[in-house]
Amino acid sequence: MPRGLLIFGGTGDARLLCERLDEQGVAYRLSVATPAGRQQAAGLQGEIFEGRMDANEMADFCRHHEIGLLADLSHPYAAVLSENILQVQRELGIPLVRYNRPSHIDAVDNPLVHKVDAIDSACELAMQLGERILLTTGSKQLADYIARLPGKTVLARVLPTQDVLAQCESYGLTIDQIFALKGPFSAEFNESFYRYCNADVVITKESGAQGGFSEKVAPCLALGIPCIVVVRPQTQVSGDVTELNNLSGVEQYLVSRFSVC
C-alpha cells in the first residue's frame, strides 16, 4: 500500500473528492495555493497546506511527509502547477493520478464563439470586436489581459477576496470595472449580468461543467455578444501516471489503494 496521499487542488472538484474520501476514512493531505483555496477546503478532515510550491519544494514536501501517491485535481488552466507535479512524479517515482475535468468545447459551434489558444490571441481579437470587454477568466492573469487591451474598458469578474480586490486596484481598475462575485452562476444570472455590464465582448475559459462554462456561453448567444474562449493548455504526460475524466473513478482509484488510517 502507498504511504501518504497528497492531493493538489483548491477547486470544487478537489473538495468533493476530499468529502468522499472523508466518508471512506481515507487520510490525505491537501495542498492549496491561495486563501480562497483554503476557504474552499473548510470543514474537510484532511490536513490543509496553503501556499504555492515549485517542483523542488514539492519534492522536499513529499520526502518529509513520506508521500506515496499524488493526485492532481488542480484547475484545468493551472499548467505550471501540473507540470511541477509531473516533474516530482518523474524525479521521485511516485505514482500520480490526474483528474481531467470533462470539456464541452467541442459541442459549441456558433459564429459568435471564437476559440483561441492564448491570451495574446484573445486580446487581439477582442480589440477588433468591441469597447467594453468582460473578463470571466479570474484574477491570476488579469495584468496580462489589461496590458494587451489598451484603450478598452476592461470589466473584471473576480473572487471577492481582499487580496484579489487589492490586486485589481493595483492594476488601475476602478469600482465601475470590478465585479467581486463567486460563481458558478446560472445562465439566467449571467444573461442579466452581461446586460447590466453592457458588455460588447466576453472572454472566458473552457472551464467545464464545474466552472459553469455552458452557462457563460449560452447568454452570449442569446444576446448576440461575441464570446472568446481560451482553450485549455495541453500537458504532455509520461511515466507512472493515470489520467481519469470521472471524479468517481478517481475516488475508486484512491480508495482501492488506501486503508483507513
Automatic annotation (TrEMBL):
MF-aspect GO terms: precorrin-6A reductase activity
Protein name: Cobalt-precorrin-6A reductase
One Pfam family linked to the record: CbiJ
Residues of the signal peptide: none
Key words of the record: Cobalamin biosynthesis, Oxidoreductase
GO process annotations (BP): cobalamin biosynthetic process
Pathway(s) this gene product operates in, as recorded in its UniProt entry: Cofactor biosynthesis; adenosylcobalamin biosynthesis
